[in-house]
Amino acid sequence: MKQSLSQKELLGRATAKYAGSIFQAEDYLASRGITREVARVARLGVVVDPEAGHEQYQGRLAIPYITKTGVVDIRFRSLNPAVEPKYMGMAGAETKMYNVLDIEIAGDWIGVCEGELDTITMSKCVGIPCVGVPGSNSWKKHYTRLLADFERVFIFADGDQPGKEFANGLAKELPVTVISMPDGEDVNSCYVKFGAGFIREKMGLTTDEF
Fold this sequence. Notes:
The protein has nine helices and eight strands. It is an alpha/beta fold. The strands form two sheets. Strands 1-2-3-4 form a four-stranded antiparallel beta sheet. A four-stranded parallel beta sheet has the order 6-5-7-8, sandwiched between helices.
């Protein structure tokens, strides 16, 4: 369903507003290896003064979904998931692909991650063009068409059963190379523990390929 200009304007205004409070998540983001500059580029924010209808997202990390036409969705991640739901989406919002602008800048290949923070890590910290989906069950058929022209699609699979199933499902639809994280790890945790070089080595890329 197409969004009206006014809806996009509201989402854009909320994104800009919440980005002004991103410093409140600085410690959390640092623990995930995400710098203030990366957070700025991704336009992450924190909901301190909620827009009308966003009151239930108070205190959460705001993760905007940005396309060439502007902000089309925002997802909200808990900064304390031990005591509340990890993620919340906006009421009535359709699941979308995250970080689609990387499709425009990618060369012959692109990556796919499960989760926005893993996608940010891969795209902005490791330097590998990457798109993402909110969860392992969020892939839609038309996403396959968006990636069909790439020679190779790297699937960065979480080191758990849903991650393996996600990768196996995509392998039936695209010419993929599955990069599996160690048991119990994901892209972000591997980046924090082992660094960008660890992931690049798992991909088998030479220095001039990224």
